[in-house]
């Protein structure tokens, strides 16, 4: 298994080009199932999750062609299967999103239930309830969700009892081909949802309100093809912003948009980080050299993103004072805590809250990556720490960070990937 070795203690300086958003790329690719015309996506990130989904879509009969330059063409004109098998779905939970689009287009779908995951149990009950509201008949058979909608789906009013990014996207995509109007209440408002709606509208859908808590979808008989450039990855941008702050360096995040940071921007500013938007990017540095402890609670957008909680915790380990970090989205998203403590961090976990008491300096150590964002938080901690850090099990990073080692070494980091 590959490892990453790095030597910390150097302020990073330079420009990092932010990739297209991994969490939009996946949904846009799934959207191709709704049409028999090609969908061409650009600014596609080169990450493993995209390849895993491309593999699954190819199993369903989608012709997927990438040109290696961030462009991908998906042609679902001749689907050959309506079944997403366990072996592929278990590799990536977002695969569940093919269920509704297959049902809407073909009237039948079978998708393996994804099972548990490192950061929490992550049920799919909200996805199922939303699709049932559209008239889908759904059963669980031998670990598979089996859905039928032979006469097509019907628009409906459905209010989520709890905000879910994936379920909002799932119902929104599926409802584009339902008869009549669908109203989604308590919808997730992440920028990725608006981007997905923009792409679906370019394909001929009629969606209004995406990016707010109420989405209205007027169903259409068919969708066509489109060309769509996806938005930049706000989590990658936020991660590198925290790298700049943690190392006391200056980074320009080319292509990033501060509007997509939500409450993360305010938390960074409160911590003493200067964020300046100019010329299609963001400049990040410490405002007055000092980092201060800040309390945050993760929440759906525009709240503080759970996908930046681990990185923010790494940043807070060397801030002045105490920071309380409350994780309210996932029940098991503190697996980075013991690893940060091995590097000298002072963190106490009480239920869903981590109390981080800032120390002067972290010390490099061998550490173990456990999931995507926990892994990158250890890289961030290692870059700020004195001495050498070896991060094991870095395959998690490949799922969501494109060319991480190159991007960081381009800004002065001493970092290398060791094949193993
Ligand atoms: C998306 O996951 C992202 N994944 C996650 O990013 C991100 O952490 C999460 O949204 C929250 O922002 C993708 O976009 C591929 P949810 P998703 O449904 O859609 C519960 C990363 O690191 N829930 O908004 O699966 C759920 O357990 C990843 O890039 C139900 O109870 O998240 C969680 O507690 C990890 N039932 C909460 O809702 C359901 O049917 C929010 O989850 C669905 C969700």
Compact description:
This protein has 420 residues and is α/β, with parallel strands linked by helices. It has helices spanning 22-31, 48-59, 86-89, 99-106, 125-133, 165-175, 191-202, 234-247, 263-270, 309-316, 336-342, 372-384, 395-398, 404-409, and strands spanning 3-7, 13-17, 39-42, 63-66, 72-75, 83-84, 108-112, 137-141, 144-148, 157-159, 181-185, 206-208, 215-218, 226-229, 250-254, 273-278, 281-286, 296-297, 322-326, 346-350, 353-357, 366-368, 388-392, 414-418.
Structural class: alpha/beta
**Separation, N- and C-terminal Cα atoms:** 5 Å
Percentage of residues assigned to helices? 25-40%
Q: How big is the Rg? A: 21 Å
Mean pLDDT: 96
User: How many strand units?
Assistant: 24
Low-confidence stretches: none
Largest sheet: 4 strands, mixed
Question: How would you name the oligomeric state of the polypeptide chains in this document?
Answer: single chain
Number of helices: 14
Ligand roster: ligand EPZ
Shape: elongated
Share in β-strands:
25-35%
